[in-house]
């Protein structure tokens, strides 16, 4: 027999889970200059770029009413890392799960999210998202195993940034004049879609940074000077807290890390994202692969220039252990090796 209060609790539990969060997204062209080097068209939402975040709680229904007001390009939204269990048609991958949303067209995304963690959303029409249509998607978790172990959260995006727009980049990328398939080399690295990002922090507090690489191509090394990270989530999966001084974040990858601030407020500390230049076929002398931000304890104190590292000794994410306790699969009976190589055709396409 359930008591009345149990039934009430169940009802309220159910109500809490059944919340719907609704976003109206008008997608338009805007002008932005995130690296201070070039004003260029970017794809914004509701007159805003950087883009608004999508935020939900585990169990919520998310409704995104898109209106494509670009005028000259189709679009779509993909919710990266969300399983879309039973709602494949909401996955946003044009030519696979839906037709492109044509200029002037509306489309309503409507799905539930039953997974906690750090995600992102982006256009999945052609190669469009590096023109700006990409932003964080955060799924809060009232039952997080790290609940109570941090005071505040900070979302932080890292990305590469191009000056030419995607249609131009793609024309030279997939071309007979580029038979080896050399990828376009970015012009800058960004943090939070800006330059010289400052993050006010309070002494002694522990912050959970949700770090997302929303870039097109470049993986980034990432570190905080003078502070150790504790990795607690990767790509929506909680991990046993693992200490790391420097992490490598591939495009689309996400890390949540806990960082405890110092008690001494006299010095500010840099944090750095450094694009992995081994990916670039040619590195122009003018390229600054690094983006720097600062943990600001005292806004009257200087923002120090980060020290240069001799080498990137990144944390090995293969050592991460999920908190779910799921057993590893046992030994296999047969193993089959597949050799994979990237063999572009003479026309630059593969
Ligand atoms: C970032 O800060 C540096 C050093 O103060 C300055 O030279 C540069 O112009 C700034 N960049 C932007 C885009 O604000
Ligand atoms: C989106 O655009 C339509 C048509 O121009 C307008 O009526 C509506 O208010 C806009 N919505 C937002 C959220 O900007
Ligand atoms: C569409 O218009 C924008 C803004 O004027 C422009 O930057 C972009 O290159 C155009 N796209 C195409 C495919 O012509
Ligand atoms: C997908 O939904 C089905 C039916 O509700 C459920 O049984 C299954 O566990 C779900 N799978 C995942 C990965 O959540
Ligand atoms: C979203 O889907 C649910 C379940 O199918 C439906 O009840 C609801 O009306 C839909 N909402 C919108 C805005 O389409
Ligand atoms: C990044 O920008 C968002 C939105 O303005 C802000 O809430 C967040 O605190 C910023 N992150 C950092 C690390 O400063
Ligand atoms: C900061 O001060 C608190 C309270 O006195 C102490 O528990 C903590 O260990 C100190 N943190 C550091 C990094 O020294
Ligand atoms: C970027 O940072 C790395 C690591 O500290 C350093 O080796 C490199 O010289 C820096 N590049 C520039 C242009 O500052």
TrEMBL record:
InterPro entries: Cu-oxidase-like_N, Cu-oxidase_2nd, Cu-oxidase_fam, Cu_oxidase_CS, Cupredoxin, CuRO_2_Fet3-like. Residues 1-18 form the signal peptide. The keyword Oxidoreductase applies. Residues 27-143, 153-299 form the Plastocyanin-like domain. GO terms for biological process: cellular response to iron ion starvation; reductive iron assimilation. Keywords: Copper, Glycoprotein, Metal-binding, Oxidoreductase, Signal. PROSITE patterns: MULTICOPPER_OXIDASE1 (PS00079). GO terms for molecular function: copper ion binding; ferroxidase activity. It comes from the Eukaryota. One of its GO terms (cellular component) is high-affinity iron permease complex. Pfam families: Cu-oxidase, Cu-oxidase_3. Belongs to the multicopper oxidase family. This is Laccase. It comes from Imshaugia aleurites. The lineage of its organism: Eukaryota, Fungi, Dikarya, Ascomycota, Pezizomycotina.
